[in-house]
Input
Amino acid sequence: MANSNYIPGDTIVALATPQGVGAIGVIRLSGPKAIAICDSVFYGKQLSEQASHTIHFGTIRSDEGNVIDEVLVSLFIAPKSYTKENVVEISGHGSPYILQQIIQILIKKGARMAQPGEFTLRAFLNGQMDLSQAEAVADLIAANSQASHQIAMQQMRGGISTEIQKLRRELIDFAALIELELDFGEEDVEFADRKKLENLIIKIKNLLQTLMDSFRLGNALKEGINTVIAGRPNAGKSTLLNALLQEDRAIVSDIAGTTRDLIEEILNIDGITFRLIDTAGLREATDTIEAIGIKKTLEKVNQSSILVYVYDSFDLEPPQVKEDIAKLYKEGMKVLIIGNKSDMIENMYNQQALQYDKYYKEKYQKENWGGIHKEFEERGFLHIKEVSAKTNRNIILIKRYLINLAIGDGLTANQTIVANSRHYEALSGAHQSLDQALTNLQSGITGDFVAMDIRHALNYLGEITGEISTDDLLDSIFTRFCIGK
Amino acid sequence: MANSNYIPGDTIVALATPQGVGAIGVIRLSGPKAIAICDSVFYGKQLSEQASHTIHFGTIRSDEGNVIDEVLVSLFIAPKSYTKENVVEISGHGSPYILQQIIQILIKKGARMAQPGEFTLRAFLNGQMDLSQAEAVADLIAANSQASHQIAMQQMRGGISTEIQKLRRELIDFAALIELELDFGEEDVEFADRKKLENLIIKIKNLLQTLMDSFRLGNALKEGINTVIAGRPNAGKSTLLNALLQEDRAIVSDIAGTTRDLIEEILNIDGITFRLIDTAGLREATDTIEAIGIKKTLEKVNQSSILVYVYDSFDLEPPQVKEDIAKLYKEGMKVLIIGNKSDMIENMYNQQALQYDKYYKEKYQKENWGGIHKEFEERGFLHIKEVSAKTNRNIILIKRYLINLAIGDGLTANQTIVANSRHYEALSGAHQSLDQALTNLQSGITGDFVAMDIRHALNYLGEITGEISTDDLLDSIFTRFCIGK
Output
């Protein structure tokens, strides 16, 4: 479980708070010399004589005796700390210049600049948390919606780990039976009742499948749900987009660091993030850069799980709607069709003193939509005909439908959601190994092959929690962290 | 000393660390209910039963019982805190989304969003620091060079306050003598020896003058020294700028939040900031926006204290140098003239097997520079003739000269520097009042006029430390702070 970047015994340092000017900034030290190094530059109480989880006021001084800053130092004595090593947190004034000075002095005194994620790596290596929990720390920091926050928090608090432990225990019990059989193999004893073993594997496979099934939803909730919004010019797409974004836009732009693609609008409904891809840019491409943009947009369209198609209900005929949707539809997409500009129809009918609700009945539902509507219904497409982005008519209904398309019946309470593609792949690997085990078991192949399959499955599951890990794996996980975590 | 925005008795909350994604973020609560409010959402130990300066691990939960974050809570019990009130600092995962959730919950439980600078305002109002120290907190956070850092630190640790207290004591002693004289005025008793009083006022005036004199330097060091860099096209100005900025640029751009004007380059030499204003943009103005830019540049040029003029020593004749400088020179400017491209001259002379050092002697010093050089010398202009930005020749000398032009003999150890224009104005006011007192004293006017002058002077000095303050003054100082400080 050694990691190439991890040199046990040294002390690391990094700024733990975001870059930039703030009221305070916090520098974190971890390692056996954390307290001694801080003591050598801190003027106040002797830190090495203080209790864990206490805070001390004093100054940080340079070798020349200049006061660099007045600070508060928080002490965490091993193993009662995030990394299970000695940890010191120095809370100084939030000037990037001064914080940088303090870090330089600490490095001069023997600390080393931390690698990205190295504090959490140490927490993992020292048994503070398993690998899936460590990964959840990064997800938690990146969380920018209620859904991604909940999933990360559940994972950090051991949601997945518990499920995996359960599966591992079942498999280990199974393996014990199989290997017992192997030991007595030449005596032709069958300790493990093969039918019972089959049922056990099927049960574990089902558990794996449930977790794997949650990934599509989990990943969508974590990353946001790619949603194409399409329609002909003048269908009122922009107005609709604005109506949908109205309350929400301020909240989204308040969250600093939200990465936004140029072609995307982020819509948050009930804590779930929708990445709205506007296909407006698809029409013209006058130069290479635009062409690249269009290629990227098309890729996004193809990856999208929801298609929102907006038409002008005053103007566009049902066959055209059907034709347009056919062009964008990809297998597996969920479709929401929106008949916009109902206000114009209302106006027209008001003026002509006609009954509004007769409109759809007479003109559309019978004459034009008839077969098309039925076809849409059969394919599970949702259709809201009476929408007015201008008067906000049925905007709330659209949001409710979007949520429904995104999460279906939603998250059941306490359901474990897999949202990490590495975990999904490991689960798939375990699932395949069990498939193989089942095949071997059913075809009466000797126990040692089955035992090997089970060991494979166990290894896959061990990768999720980090019981099985390689330097490369750890590197690839922790280099994605920010420095200071 | 009441402030309109300050409602004693309520509890304020704000994010104390910079906006953005980081490993951790810290939320600060201050006020009588800080601990109770935190206790109502914190699941861990009962905070109200814990000692001051201790740290506690637990979770923050919503009313519905959902875990919002795993946090560390630091307790500071009044008066042992920054504000002298109860203070709680909640250190959570550095997701802006999650930190915002926590703040929302704390507000729901009775905290109020803090105004900018309100924590420090409370520290001031509760006697933790005087006004000049409170101002230094903001300066410290904004510090982005060694010089601005030193000045702010000195001020925060009471440098100016000590000087002002000293002056106030002298004046109070003086006032006591004068007012004693007043009490016995009708008896025509002169307790205060007028000659002695005069000498005392002159002494205090001199002390004030020393502080006032430090302002020009202090302000320049704090804000950076505006330096014009000028020269004809092809004088090698950009290459020179790059040579000067070379080592430095990385450091500067590392400091996030450094506000940079488009026309400025920031050069740091020995911890002193030079704001280099390139006059290149002065030549063309094709539209209104550019014209505005040029107007701003010209204003900057006029405010600059140093002019660096670069010429191509291979090409440009001394009279042209003189002419160009005359156009940009303003009274009080310090001037550094740089003869660039010495490498080209060297090359030429090497090729012609001539002695390089004869070049200046024969061609320039005698024939062309002669009188002009003498004139420059008399006006105190510095001139480095043999510079090559290309080969870095004499770049270090330029830096040394710039430092010399900026701070002269520099800061003497422990000298108090005034760097705040509000302080400078108050000192000027006190100085004027003492002038008046001296005039009145010398012209034999009765003591009560003199006493009034002294009271004015005392009030001016009291404004610096905040012993005299108004709501408006406090508002104007603290609204410039960031929220959370």
In short: The longest strand of chain B covers residues 67-76.
